[in-house]
Design goal:
There is one protein chain. The chain has 2 domains: 190 residues, Alpha-Beta Complex (Spore Coat Polysaccharide Biosynthesis Protein SpsA, Chain A); 45 residues. It is α/β, with parallel strands linked by helices. Helix content is 40%, strand content 21%. The relative contact order is 0.15. The protein is built from 11 helices and 11 strands. Helix 1 links the parallel strand 1 and strand 2. The chain is globular and about 55 Å long.
């Protein structure tokens, strides 16, 4: 069984198109679709109830965040294959079955990412990253990656070939097909990363547990991009920076690195202040 898990916040029309595309291009394996609605104000939950009664809906009375919403969906999921899918995506071919077939053929694969396309179905969206190690992220923070992309642009994997399948490090979380046994090994999303870096963290843990991370161009879908986070840009800028700080304190803290992490945190906070043009509290449930 394939379980598709969608966390939604105020993207009613995009969610409608996403669910309709799943219904029009279902996999041949049994299918379960779970929608966790984070207290949307745009009628999303009511739309799912009335138009897609076959969807299992969990309507929260508050915004739990992306990680907590997905964890609710993971608990509800019954499939061996569990797909975390953004609400602002659409399918137009048999990519859901292609994704399951791909994973069934690679026993050591813990997760699969697909090719994200603009609505024109032609333009490929850059969606691959390296893990945000200090060597990868510091040139990004200081602008060196933009000035000298060939030398310092490794974090964004500008040379990634989206026409070929292969192992990857950190695909964007818009479409991530997990093997249930891999999730059983490492646990669910860390809710200390409510909006951002929860996908980075879970992929990093998968890699550390010996599971491989794959990309396949045969799995493709339209991605409209950031339809929830763009509604509150200043809040999301601050939340992304705070989540980067949390990620570093989680994975890089030692007795000798603490002073460096304090300095790093200050630099990231300053970057958020500049990019957001002011202070913001970030995500609050």
């Amino acid at each position: 069984m394939l379980s598709i898990l969608i966390v939604n916040w105020n993207t009613c029309e995009y969610l409608r198109r996403c669910l309709r595309s799943i219904a029009e291009h279902p996999p041949s394996v049994p299918l379960q679709v779970v929608v966790v609605d984070n207290a949307s104000k745009d009628g999303s939950a009511e739309m799912v109830r009335s138009e897609f009664p076959w969807v299992e809906l969990e309507a929260s009375d508050k915004n739990l965040g992306y990680a907590a919403g997905n964890n609710i969906a993971f608990v509800m999921a019954r499939g061996e294959w569990q797909l975390t899918l953004n609400a602002d995506t659409e399918f137009f071919d048999d990519s859901l079955q292609a994704a399951v077939d791909f994973m069934e053929g690679r026993k050591g694969a813990g997760v699969l990412a697909g090719k994200l396309l603009d609505p024109n179905q032609q333009t490929v969206q850059p969606s691959m990253r390296r893990f945000p190690t200090p060597g990868a992220i510091l040139p990004e923070m200081f602008g060196l990656a933009k000035i000298f992309p060939k030398k310092f642009g490794d974090y964004r994997q500008l040379d990634f070939d989206y026409s070929r399948e292969g192992e990857a490090e950190q695909p964007m979380g818009s479409f991530l097909l997990f093997r249930k046994s891999a999730l059983n090994d490492i646990g669910l999303m860390d809710e200390r990363f409510p909006i951002f870096f929860n996908d980075v963290d879970i992929l990093f843990r998968l890699k550390g547990a010996g599971w491989s991370i794959w990309y396949s161009p045969e799995v493709q879908l339209i991605h409209h991009g950031g339809r929830s986070t763009k509604q509150i840009p200043k809040t999301m800028i601050w939340e992304s920076h705070r989540s980067l700080i949390r990620y570093y304190w989680k994975w890089y803290q030692t007795w000798w690195s603490t002073p460096l992490l304090v300095l790093f945190s200050g630099i990231v906070w300053l970057g958020a202040l500049v990019r957001a043009r002011g202070w913001n509290a970030g995500y609050r449930p």
